[in-house]
Each structure stands twice: as C-alpha cells, then as structure tokens.
Design brief:
The complex is a heterodimer.
Chain A (H helix, E strand, L loop, with lengths): L4 E4 L3 H10 L3 E4 L5 H6 L7 E4 L9 E4 L2 E5 L4 H6 L1 H6 L1 H8 L4 H4 L4 H7 L6 H7 L3 E4 L3 E3 H4 L14 E7 L3 E8 L6 E10 L2 E7 L6 E2 L1 H9 L24 H21 L3
Chain B lengths: L1 E7 L2 E7 L5 H8 L18 E4 L2 E4 L12 E3 L13 H8 L9 H14 L5 H7 L10 H15 L1
Parallel strand pairs in B: 1-5
Antiparallel strand pairs in B: 1-2, 3-4, 3-5
The chains are: A alpha+beta, B alpha+beta.
Chain lengths: ~270, ~160
Amino acid sequence: MFEFNYLKAKSLSEAAAFIASNPDAKLLSGGMTLLPTIKQRLAQPSHLVDVGGLPELSGIELKAGRLAIGAATRHHDVATSAVVRKAIPALAYLASLIGDPQVRNRGTLGGSVANNDPAADYPSAVLALGATIVTTKREIAADDFFQGMFATALEAGEIIVRVLFPVPMRAAYEKFPHPASGYAMAGAFVAETAVGVRVAVTGAGPGVFRWSDAESALAKNLSPSAIDKLTVDSTDLNEDFHATREYRANLAKVMAKRAVAKLLAAKS
Amino acid sequence: MTKIELTVNGTKYSREAEDRTLLADFLRDQLGLTGTHIGCDTSQCGCCTVHVDGRAIKSCTMLAVQAGGADVVTIEGMASKDGKLHPVQQAFSDCHGLQCGFCTPGMIMATAALLKDNPSPTDAEIYHGLEGNLCRCTGYINIVKAVKLAAQTMK
C-alpha cells in the first residue's frame, strides 16, 4: 500500500470540511472495497477520513411509512434488524447475501451505495424501492443518483447520511452470485410500491438499471409469466470471461421471474 | 505513525504503527501473535479472521489504527489460561476438521462467531456462515462435522 494519513472524524461536519479541502482524501466507512483497492495500488488517497463510527450516520428507524437507515449501518445489522425484517424483509434478505459474514460485519450501506459497483446488491434495492439518498447537502432520488459504473450524483465533499426506503406493499430480491466472489452475475429486485411495480437489475450491466418493459408488463399482470415473452436488451450489458452479454440478459430475466414468484408468495 | 491502544486476548497493548499497517500484520509482527494467518491478503480466504468487539472480521482488510480502543480476540485467546481448549478447538481436533491446518485459526474464529449468533445451525446455515473461509485442502466435510460437534458440546 502507498502511504496515507488516517483521520478519525469526530463529526460529520468535520469530515465534510476535510474532504472538501483535501481533494485526494477519501472517506473510509467499512473499507470492504476501499482497503482492497488501496492494497492493489489502484487508489492512492492522501488521507482516509474514517466516518464509520459517527453517531450521525447510524441507526435504523421506521417513520411515516419510510425506513431510514444510517449510512454507516453495517450489512449484518440490516440483515438481522427486527425492524427491517418486519418492514422490508426483502431488504434484510438482500443484506444477508452480501459478501460473507466477516464482510457483512464491516461493510456499510452508505459505502456500497456511494461506490455503486455494477455488481453490488444494495443499488438494486435503492432503485427498485424508489429510495431517497439523504446527503450532507441535499436529498437525491434513486432515479437520479446512480449514473453508471462506479458513478453517482454525489459531488466532491458530499457525504451520504442516510437512505430513506419507502415501505412497499411487497418486494423480493433474487440474485445469481458468482460462485467465487459472491457478486451478482445478475440480480433483480422487484417491488410492488404505491407508484407501481418497479424492477431493478444489478450485475448485468455497467450499472444498476430499471427494466421498464417488465415493469409495464407486471403492472398489467403481476406474475412470472407476464415477462416470459420479454427479453432484456443485451446491447449494453457486461461481457467478460464469466459470461457473455446474452447470457447475462437471460439471467436477469430469470432472476426477475424468480423474484416475482417470491414476491407473490410473500405476505403483503 | 500513530499510537494504537487496544486490548488483545485480555491484555492491554500500546504500540506505534504506520497508519497503513493492517491489523493482521500488527498482530503478527508487533505483538508476535502469529496464530492469525495471512492466506490470500485479498479478503477472500478468511485465514486472518479475528474477533473485534465480539464480531468476526478479516484482519487483512482492517487497519490496525481502526482497531484503536477495541477488544480483539485472536486464536491465541480461545483456550483457557490452564491450556484447556475452547470447545470449537476441541471439536476441530476430535473431528479432524483440518488437513494442512493453515486455514484452521480462521475457521475456528469464524465458527465461534457463527455459533454465538446461531447456537444450532443447520447444514445450510453452516455453509452460509463459513462462506468467508476457504480450505484449500477442501477438507470441508470434517469441518462441518466439527462445527456440529462444537454446537452440541456448547449447549
């Protein structure tokens, strides 16, 4: 690893001010992506500003039909939270599939969402549930937040404080994990919400995306067979030695169908 | 350099370390606790698993400075002071839950954490619970047996 200076932030405002005036500083939360990236010398931050322990970023709260989860909440805590399991069981289930137990004990919601790895799990839930990302500067709708591979609407010096998930009628997540990494080869989060059925696909493309054809079909007929005749356009999907883009397109559809079947089996 | 104060296996330590020092290297090189192994150094294999404030983590993917003020337990802290093995260690020995033994410290730390959360895991829950630990000898059958025996003896 290259050298860097570690700074444990005492408050959110201190962290925000520091990264705003130090362009090569990086925020450190769970570090489950950032530390391996630094170890591989793919990043060379001047400073790591640790926000993992900040009380402003912690906590899980259900208020007025929305589940607010602090950005530094660890995957394990989301997966095992009685509040999350009751309000949005699909979200707790999704968190229980991230990485492995040791990773879930360190990795955080805010870190995953800010990193926007194209194969990460959380972005699909944030997008399908139409969540709102609350930052130190503003509130950003999920539809505006994710902007392709590792790209988000976050500006320099802007920190995610919490994510507000509207509680859906029903929701389900299904993913086909890569057997070695556990990352999604394709994953689909399907949510029946107050504003209609939303389907978000992760792992298959350069970033999480909504599958609008499936959403319209499911709006008319909420069943796995409704998307039988549809295909995910493979033109812009990822192709690598793990899978071709056509394979990923099919996998995304299979995951979406499974998620719909699971959603129907769930109690509303 | 930063002064790091933490508790490891019940003993308080205070050491200077570079900010980039990984907890795994700190434990091995500065404290001489070489039971924590570094297998892959890429957060895949779990050989470096230790407990930080009661939770299993991969110490190759945490900075030593992040463990400041924490209560850390390594494989050296599992047996009691009189040398009596922890039930998970005893079960791995009884079931021969190892071949070369390199992954064993991590397997034992991960198993102890798993059984704390779930004292009677099913086979599927054991597989899911040990997903972060690799045995390159592929000796998983006896490892799963050992987890089940440990669960039984700890009841």
